[in-house]
Amino acid sequence: MPNPVKYHKILDALQTLLENQELQNISVSEIAHTAGIGKGSIYYYFPSKDAILQALVERNYEKPLQTAKALAYQTEISPFTRMAMIFQACRNSSSEFLKSEDSTDSSTQSKIFLHQKYVNHIITELKPVLAEIIRQGVESGEIHFDDPESLAEIVLIVLTVKMDNTLVPSSKEEIETTISALISLLEQGTGNPPGSLNFLKS
Length: 202
Description:
The protein contains 9 helices and no strands. The protein starts with a helix and ends in a 12-residue tail after the last helix. The longest helix has 32 residues, at 108-139. It has 202 residues and is mainly α. The mean pLDDT is 82.
């Protein structure tokens, strides 16, 4: 049976190595040595270094994604409130990740690659959850839009890119302007009153 302690030791080892090295320069042997386990044990848990990185990404966003999935069917809560709670949970996780990245010596190219992994994971995992909440809002008459999946994807792409602020570096003012424009478009497109989506700014 897989040992969860070893599993997390491997992830911790990669995270530690990333603080001072480029991802492409880190070997599976180094990960094993840092984790204090044999190289063969690595392949028992993961088929490749990329798989370890993906698991690390998933672990770092596990809590907000669990929160999102738990909220998906709590229909007694307003869809806007649920979306606000989900975005805040993701912001908290992203802030922690960015804080740790700021203290590392990794190159810009390496950081961008890692951030792309995070952005891809968040959009892939959250899109069906957010689309379901929007669909419920449409059914209850609180949201007016014909394509919940597309709306969810548009919101997530803009918010994750701006929230991450590595793929398209922007000043605080530029980020606020973009998010305000997104809110205005969404409120007009969904027939919601001005200010109803201001939680996206928080």
